[in-house]
Amino acid sequence: MAKRTRAEMMDGTRRKLLASARAAFVEKGFHKTSMDDLTSAVDLTRGALYHNFGDKKGLFAAVVDQIDAEMASRARGLAEGEGTVWRALLAEGCAYIEMALDPEVQRIVLRDGPAVLGDPAHWPSQNCCLDATREAVTQLLANGVLRPVDIEAASRLLNGAALNAALWVASCDNPEAMLLKAQEAFRMLAEGLLAPDSEATNDGAKG
């Protein structure tokens, strides 16, 4: 068997810590998870955690970034078959909101995330989501699907609406009951950007 390089060993250590952290944080939450919970399950030392992530908060931030990026990827995947940029934009936003029902997403990203890391609008993973929304809005505006609107403003408001709807669903006593209401409100808010004579499902909005 070929000897692993130092880079491969470091990558393996990071992957182990991330997997261990995801399991611990979803089970116990950030504040009740100890350093030993994060390291002993994968036979690593605290030194390995400090070296790779700085501290528990740094590891938590990496976990949130990983899960949030997975959420965005899953939402894009679910929207790919929609046929038009407009339909894909709505489907992606609604899919993101629905992921608030996922126990891992709900506890780690949407409940503990803002409490530990602050405003989600400043998370690196959210910037990636914003980039994708900005690209869609730019194309829709160029195709005459949207009213004349500032691209940056519209993109940030759409992205923020989906995120805040997910945060709301995650914090409800009955998330399942609130999901459809949140998705409906998101669609209605987004539809307010449509040009009066736009047929958003027609060829003018195709990707």
Automatic annotation (TrEMBL):
Q: Which residues form the HTH tetR-type domain?
A: 11-71
One MF term in GO for this entry? transcription cis-regulatory region binding
Residues annotated as DNA-binding are 34-53
Q: List keywords of the entry alphabetically.
A: DNA-binding
Enumerate the Pfam families for this protein.
Answer: TetR_C_41 (PF21351), TetR_N (PF00440)
State the Gene3D superfamilies in the record: Tetracycline Repressor, domain 2 (1.10.357.10)
Top-level lineage group: Bacteria
What InterPro entries does this protein map onto? Homeodomain-like_sf (IPR009057), HTH-type_TetR-like_transc_reg (IPR050109), HTH_TetR (IPR001647), Rv0078-like_C (IPR049484)
Instruction: Report the protein name in the record.
Output: TetR family transcriptional regulator
Protein source organism:
Pseudooceanicola spongiae
